[in-house]
Write a structure and sequence with these properties.
The complex is a heterodimer of chains A (290) and B (343). Chain A is 77% helix and 0% strand. Chain A has 290 residues and is an all-alpha fold. In chain A, helix 4 runs antiparallel to helix 5, helix 9 packs antiparallel against helix 10 and helix 10 runs antiparallel to helix 11. The longest helix of chain A is centred in the first third of the chain and has 23 residues. Chain A starts with a helix and ends with a helix. The N terminus of chain A is likely disordered. Chain B contains 11 helices and 9 strands. In chain B, helix 2 packs antiparallel against helix 9, helix 4 packs antiparallel against helix 11 and helix 5 crosses helix 10. Chain B starts with a helix and ends with a helix. The N terminus of chain B is likely disordered. In chain B, strands 1, 2, 3, 4, 7, 8 and 9 form a 7-stranded mixed beta sheet that branches. A two-stranded parallel sheet of chain B has the order 5-6. Chain B is globular and about 65 Å long. The chains are: A mainly alpha (290), B alpha/beta (343). The interface between A and B is medium-sized, with 25 and 32 residues.
């Protein structure tokens, strides 16, 4: 009896091992790792103490790395890792060199995720702008999550490397990818695409080709889509748009609103808490700026 | 003993108040508003703000520079107008923008005079002070110039000879008379557009050649619309900050010295950093797939002869000082000879 149980256990393991050797298994594993990555993400996003995330997240990042090592072709694991590395590198890391390193890994994962679902993407890094743009047009809603991970991780990478002309010269590609996401599903990720389009349109002043009013529309739509609950959108609206066009009234009213709001919201708590801190800093420095 | 101490204490307090009152008028804080096209959040703006913070501290709050970045005060022409009516007190400019006030600022930017950064450095070491003094005499106080690199030809078909330029539509910035004349002399059809319309111009075929520094091309994203860059310096670009002398003269001698020292330092740093940026942006263009083409020596001589004549003609018409142009060309010759001798 006992022997039998061990045997059955053994056979179960064997079965798993056998399954793992077969390509069909990738699907199962993909779902498991993808789901786990998703759970990890939401646990992190609902945390109201940013320091806990800052100190604890590296362990999750390592876990993501190991999941990918075990299942290197999982688009969803690669995508989740890209998103997490991007967020961590862009938000929690103050040392510029570390931010560069971590967001580089984010971008590598993002590109690999894209490469799994869309083979021409494996050559995106070497493509010139026109070919890249033409290839983006062939993507469909099926590749939306991976394109999103690629874009977000590229944005984080660009931000961490804004002193690098080579990276800046690639920014038009990232903008193009973002525009493609917008065409495929403008309201994807409850307004995140609008938020990023808001930021990109307000990076450059009008005199250098920026479009602050287009940016403003995106910020307003992003606020609308989150029902006003995503405080980081309002902070970014104040920092990117209101400061660019020197609209002090808008700047202060957005930030005051952020500080007075309840940061605890499903999936937004962590970034809302951080947004409130940033809002305070922006208000404190407003007199020097305006 | 105690009484005398108290009395002397009161006396010194009284004299301190009297002194403070006497000093008050000249100690009144002066806000100097400076406009620039440089976007907020860039290293340039950060350094300008750090500089103004240092000035504020060292002048005990008497001098307070405020910066309006991102071209929010309008284009250079509008900013100059606002300076004239006292709404602004200064700005960060390129030479063309102050051409009405002091035309000679365009001297280093005369087309095809320089062929290397070595020549530029040799001339600037000897002539920066001449232009700074001229500008100040014209009513604008500056604190040194920052390098902007060389403008080069960016195009969709290779440009390597005068023939490959004939009849082609080239972008010329608004109000840039010298570039306009030069492009005409080279047989091109100049199309005047504002900087912000160039991208659309390239997309629609309204222009097919633009001249830009590598940094400018990356920032404006023109590199996504062209295939070739001609590695040949067309014109030297630079930037500088000016403060209207009327307002600068209101500062005490000591405070003026602080401003000159701090912004002088900032601009020297810009000058150094911009040279590095120019090289890095050039490499970024190559890495992004832009092909570099070079005209042969014969063509270069051909261009220089055409444009050199047009430069002298412009100087004779009074667009810039002939005396200064000759002086600069003399230094360039001197440098070339020293290099030839060294080799």
């Amino acid at each position: 009896m006992r022997m039998k149980r061990i045997n059955s256990k053994f056979s179960l393991l064997t079965l798993l091992a056998l399954l793992a050797l077969q390509s069909g298994c990738a699907m199962v594993m993909d779902r498991v790792t993808g789901k786990m990555a998703g759970n990890l993400s939401s646990a992190i996003l609902n945390q109201e103490d940013p320091e806990t995330v800052r100190d604890g997240a590296p362990a999750y990042l390592l876990l993501m790395d190991s999941m990918i090592e075990g299942n290197p072709e999982s688009a969803s694991a690669l995508g989740s890792a890209a998103n997490l590395y991007a967020a961590y590198g862009a938000v929690f890391v103050e040392d510029p060199e570390r931010a560069k390193r971590l967001t580089r890994r984010a971008r590598e994962y993002g590109l690999r995720a894209m490469c799994v679902v869309h083979v021409p993407a494996c050559g995106w890094a070497e493509m010139d702008f026109a070919s890249f743009d033409a290839d983006l047009a062939t993507l469909t809603a099926d590749e939306l999550p991976e394109l999103y991970s690629f874009t977000v991780s590229s944005l984080a990478y660009t931000r961490a490397n804004s002193d690098d002309w080579g990276v800046l010269a690639e920014l038009p590609k990232v903008e193009s990818a973002l525009n493609r996401l917008y065409q495929l599903d403008s309201d994807y990720q409850s307004g995140a695409i609008h938020l990023y389009l808001g930021i990109l349109n307000t990076i450059r002043p009008p005199a250098l080709g920026g479009k602050p009013e287009v940016g403003r529309e995106h910020f307003e739509r992003a606020i609308e889509l989150s029902g006003g609950k995503d405080l980081s959108v309002k902070v970014e609206f104040a920092r990117s748009y209101a400061r660019l066009v020197y609209d002090r009234e808008l700047h202060d009213s957005l930030l005051t609103d952020v500080i007075e709001s309840d940061p605890v919201q499903p999936g937004l708590t962590l970034f809302n808490t951080l947004a409130q801190r940033q809002a305070e800093t922006l208000l404190e420095t407003a007199d020097d700026y305006f | 003993m105690i009484i005398s101490r108290t009395r002397s204490g009161i006396l010194s307090m009284v004299s301190a108040i009297v002194l403070a009152l006497l000093v008050a008028p000249s100690a009144q804080a002066l806000d100097l508003k400076i406009a620039t096209i440089a976007p907020e959040g860039t290293a340039w703006m950060k350094q300008m703000r750090d500089g103004s913070k240092e000035i504020k501290e060292r002048t005990e709050g008497r001098v307070n520079f405020k910066f309006f970045g991102g071209g929010v005060m309008g284009n250079d022409k509008k900013v100059m107008r606002k300076i004239r009516i006292g709404q602004l007190h200064g700005g960060m400019f390129t030479p063309t923008s102050v051409a009405d006030v002091y035309p000679n600022m365009q001297l280093f930017g005369m087309p095809l005079v320089f062929s290397s950064m070595g020549e530029v450095e040799y001339v600037r070491e000897r002539m920066d002070s001449v232009l700074i003094a001229g500008l100040e005499e014209a009513g604008l106080v500056s604190f040194g110039f920052s390098d902007g690199g060389f403008a080069r030809v960016l195009s969709n078909t290779p440009v390597t000879s005068v023939e490959s330029l004939k009849g082609r539509k080239v972008w010329v910035p608004e109000g840039d008379l010298i570039t306009y004349n030069t492009m005409s002399a080279l047989g091109l059809s100049p199309v005047t557009l504002s900087v912000t319309d160039v991208m659309t111009g390239l997309q629609t075929g309204l222009v097919d050649i633009v001249a830009s520094s590598p940094v400018g091309a990356v920032v404006m994203q023109w590199h996504t619309k062209v295939k070739y860059m001609t590695d040949f310096p067309l014109a030297y670009l630079m930037g500088f900050m000016v403060v209207d002398k009327k307002y600068f003269d209101k500062l005490s001698e000591a405070d003026q010295q602080v401003v000159r020292e701090v912004f002088g330092k900032v601009y020297a740093e810009f000058d150094r950093q911009n040279k590095l940026d120019d090289r890095a942006a050039f490499k970024a263009l190559v890495d992004s797939g832009i092909e570099i083409v070079r005209p042969d020596e014969e063509q270069i001589e051909n261009w220089r002869a055409l444009v050199g004549a047009s430069n002298l003609e412009m100087a004779d018409r009074g667009v810039i000082s002939r005396e200064l142009l000759d002086k600069m060309l003399g230094y360039i010759d001197e440098y070339r000879q020293s290099q030839a001798g060294a080799n």
